[in-house]
Design a protein that fits this description.
The chain has about 475 residues and is an alpha/beta fold. The protein has 2 domains: about 270 residues, Aldehyde Dehydrogenase, Chain A, domain 1 (3-Layer(aba) Sandwich); about 190 residues, 3-Layer(aba) Sandwich (Aldehyde Dehydrogenase, Chain A, domain 2), CATH 3.40.309. It is about 40% helix and about 20% strand. It has 15 helices and 21 strands. The strands form 5 sheets. It has a 7-stranded mixed beta sheet, sandwiched between helices. It has a 6-stranded mixed beta sheet with strand order 8-7-6-9-10-20, sandwiched between helices. The protein has a 3-stranded mixed beta sheet with strand order 1-3-2, with helices on one face. Helix 4 runs parallel beside helix 5 and helix 9 crosses helix 10. The relative contact order is 0.14. The mean pLDDT is about 95.
Length: about 475
């Protein structure tokens, strides 16, 4: 029987605007029908959330927030398998990786609790001159206000923890809009939060009847913080609509560069590059895409990488053996194929892949030396495609790596510490991985898109900090 989500998760009894059919990207199976929200629901959610924030007597005490988050951990552990399978089915991320995602999400809640237990305000220096004599000062943290969280499809469990659990930890009422392709994981987490003891009005979820209504949420003067994860086009547009005083964080995509030096351990690099490039079929904002390889080893690396990728299992994401699942929409398969064909026609060497396997799946593809002006070289592929480019001089590789208006995470493979430091110092990136792929992440570390790739710093402790203000008290004796 098709799963039903027949209510809009807004405080109070509200009728749905309609229903959205959630379809599995792999085989078009109907997974669920979800109640959708319109402008009336948005206004109701904003009114409820803002009233909560303005009434300080209703704020959730620190101990209560920790209790709720601790309960959520237990509930998610009990439902680990169901959450993993659900995420794999609706988002297409292979089950082996969806299991890791749920485990990460549970650990992310632990990070929320650890942050609350250890992250305090500051003592501000006083009594160092006549003006500050006989005074002491310190700061404490307060919630910034109503949080609106607009989420992406590619990590349907973990992103909700990063946005919603962080807001709960910060003490903020939160309204979450999940991606229309993958709303089910979000709604399951919201229901678990209620079971964990969070009053329903503190976390409201809206699956919008029309995604254009997101602007009504983002631009409202009652919100204190917008957390957006998704495309740069939408993110920067929503930022331009923010009301005066509202703050935001934006996490967009990148065109992640990797530099492989002539002394790199090729055999060690190959499985890491394959994982970073083809994890979730390349639909990750820091997915390995552009690999700049020294000319002395490019043939060896390219052939070994192509051999490795050609053996990766593509198909049903709910099967444990699957390594590359479907793209989120059938149209994305056609788009990726057109980009690959454009590159090959322009002179790139196709070592493996380049095939449409089904309406939803594309083969793992390795290209060598695509021209600098084709789309696989200049834009985020967001598909199972990696490109290798030969270089002879490390500075030329860095120059090409830095040539695009995107900047997120990068990587270098080398055994030379001086070369490692040189690349680290000169590569445009918020983080540089050494002898690892660009998609490495643990959830307590800073995670920041720069330039067109985003605004602000993600990572759970940093997000909690963004969702709070640091309020100072000055006492004169």
């Amino acid at each position: 029987m098709t799963e039903q989500f027949d209510k809009v998760y807004v405080a109070g009894d509200t009728k749905p605007a309609g229903f959205l059919k959630v379809i599995a990207p792999y085989d078009d199976k109907l997974l669920a029908e979800v109640a959708t929200a319109n402008t009336v629901h948005i206004e109701k959610a904003l009114s409820v959330a803002y009233s909560l924030y303005r009434n300080r007597k209703t704020w959730l005490p620190l101990a209560k927030r920790i209790e709720i988050l601790s309960n959520l951990i237990a509930l998610m552990q009990e439902q680990h398998d169901a959450l993993s399978m659900g995420a794999a089915a609706e988002g297409g991320k292979p089950l082996q990786d969806s299991r890791v995602e749920v485990t990460r999400a549970i650990d992310g809640i632990r990070i929320c609790i650890e942050t609350l237990r250890t992250d305090a305000g500051h003592v501000i220096p006083m009594q160092f001159n006549a003006a500050s004599a006989n005074r002491i000062a310190f700061t404490q943290h307060e919630p910034i206000g109503v949080v609106v969280a607009i989420s992406a499809f590619n990590h349907p469990v973990n992103l909700i923890i990063h946005q919603v659990a962080a807001a709960v930890a910060a003490g903020c009422p939160v309204i979450v809009k999940p991606a229309s392709n993958t709303p089910l994981s979000c709604l399951r987490i919201v229901k678990l939060l209620y079971q964990a003891g969070l009053p329903e009005e503190w976390c409201q979820a809206l699956v919008l009847q029309d995604n254009s209504l997101a602007g009504q949420l983002a631009s409202d003067s009652r919100i204190g913080f917008l957390s957006f994860i998704g495309s740069a086009k939408v993110g920067w547009m929503l930022r331009s609509q923010l009301a005066p005083g509202a703050r935001c964080s934006l996490e967009h995509g990148g065109v992640a560069p990797v530099i492989v030096a002539e002394d790199a351990d090729v055999n060690n690099a190959v499985p890491l590059l394959a994982k970073g490039g083809f994890y979730h079929a390349g639909q990750v904002c820091v997915s390995v895409q552009r690999i700049f390889v020294h000319e002395k080893i490019i043939s060896d690396l390219a052939n070994k990488l192509a051999s490795y990728v050609s053996k990766m299992v593509v198909g049903d994401p709910t099967l444990l053996e699957t390594e590359i699942g479907p793209l989120i929409r059938h149209a994305e398969v056609e788009r990726v194929d057109s980009w690959v064909k454009e590159a090959v026609h322009a002179g790139a060497s196709l070592l493996c892949g380049g095939e449409v396997l089904s309406a939803s799946c594309y083969s793992g593809t390795v290209l060598v030396d695509p021209p600098v002006d084709v789309r696989v070289s200049t834009q985020e592929v967001f598909g199972p495609v990696v490109c290798l480019y030969r270089y002879s001089d490390i500075d030329s590789a860095i120059l090409r790596a830095n040539s695009l208006p995107f900047s997120f995470q990068g990587a270098v493979f080398t055994r030379d510490i001086e070369r490692m430091l040189y690349v680290y110092q000169n590569l445009d990136a918020s983080a540089v991985m050494v002898n690892d792929h660009t998609a490495f992440r643990v959830d307590g570390m800073p995670f920041a898109g720069l330039r067109q790739s985003g605004l602000g710093v993600g990572g759970i402790p940093y997000t909690i900090r963004d969702m709070q203000i640091e309020k100072m008290l000055v006492i004169r004796n």
